[in-house]
Amino acid sequence: MKVFITQPLEPEAMRLLEDAGIEAVCSGVSRPLTRQEFLDGIADADGVIFVWHTEILDKEALDHAPKLKIAARRGVGYDNIDLLEAQTRGVEVTVTPVHTHTIADLTFGLMINAARKLHHADAFVRGGQWTEAGTWVAQRFMGFDVSYKTIGIIGFGKIGKHMAKRARGFDMEVLYNDVVRQPDAERELGATFVTLDELYGRSDFISINCALTETTRRMVDRKAIAKMKETAVLVLSARGGIVDEEALCEALSTGKLGAAGLDVFEEEPVPFDSPLLKLENTAFSPHLGTSVMETRIRMATTAAEEVIRVLNAKPPLYSLLRRAS
């Protein structure tokens, strides 16, 4: 049995595959694969591990991989995989939702950073610009309180729930919107289910934690932003493409929105000439949601374990197909 790995995987995961008698073949490059590289890699593979979300497993790719039994994603985003086509062909699709607390940590930190302009203040001090004390410095970096405010969470999966836990520690009122209402989670976390329009209108902070689908693509557009408070802080760590970046930039630059923190972008890497990068009421990170060593190892080993289960005719733990059916 053979599994193709799109980019280098942590050695702990490679050892698991090898110890299970599976030939683990890695592309050997730390970048997105070209289409041909990807098709060649999966041609005779029994399984594939997607280390990133850039390679597309669609009908054409599945035609090139007649032996494929599992597509394992190291991560939770699956917008690069045609689930219906995979299900039709009996190809299992799995994710690794073992990193949700790590993403919530970064998201909450990015939210505070955007609200309090910490990164700009840090650059100010490091750049030798703090040459005189006084109230002018406080005025220069005036921000927004986080505690005792209202947070609206779009997408109340594991990451969304972790965000709610952190928000409660800041005495925030927690609103959420999801495709499925969750009464048990509401009671446990003190969260309130609301419509999207109500969430937009009431929230001081809006955290976007839903999946990127055709329904959610550019969901946060001009109309949505127009319903938000002018002091609202929007933070996105789910997928670029959920937020219309042109509309966001317009709102931030005209005072229709208070601030924004982005870990993901419609185009990655974000173009150097993007007008978003010129705005001060923003905070950015380069898609670092899971960039913690122990979390990366756990994600990688979980993906490897899912491959081992499926190739040994056992059900996986984190099947997208079972979730969807």
Your description of this structure?
- By secondary structure, the protein is an alpha/beta fold.
- It folds into 2 domains: 2-98 and 293-324, NAD(P)-binding Rossmann-like Domain (Rossmann fold), CATH 3.40.50; 100-284, Rossmann fold (3-Layer(aba) Sandwich).
- Helices cover 38% and strands 14% of the residues.
- It has 14 helices and 12 strands.
- The strands form 2 sheets. A 7-stranded parallel β-sheet has the order 8-7-6-9-10-11-12, sandwiched between helices.
- Helix 9 (183-189) links the parallel strand 7 (173-177) and strand 8 (191-193).
- It is globular and about 65 Å long.
For this entry, give a set of tags.
325 residues; alpha/beta; Rossmann fold; seven-stranded parallel beta sheet; five-stranded parallel beta sheet; 14% strand; globular
